[in-house]
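Sample entry (156 residues):
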Amino acid sequence: MKQLKAFTIIEMLVVLVLSAVVFGIAASAWLYFEKLENKINTSQSYLLAFNKFDYLIKNDVNNANEINGNETDLYFDINNQHQKIHYQFFDTSIVRNQEDISDTLNIYYTKKYQFAKKSNDLISKIDIVFKLYNDSIPKSYIKWYDNKTLLEHSDN
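Predicted structure, serialized as tokens:
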């Protein structure tokens, strides 16, 4: 009787088990890197929203004739452009409305803004503390008014 050269059932089972182990390691590594990519994308989108908000509000504060508001809203009257910009502060986002354009920025902040008023209704300082993971990022935006504007809005 002629014997064929072939693998035994034991050798085939060993290869099958080793293949399953390698596949399991590869699948868990794939899942790990997929979660890592999602975390990086989330933090990048948050940082993008934070930087966009920072850029927009700096521009709006610098260009505004007047800044008014209350606990949840800020209103900017922009110089020489006859336009108003409205910020709405929600728990997990800030919405900026300018004419027909609306931006929703998903930003987490731990403390809402505070007003330092130089006159009856003008806001001269906005303090916001943003939350990024376990870090707090305090930001202040200051508006310097000219004397004419201050006199127009004074109590006297």
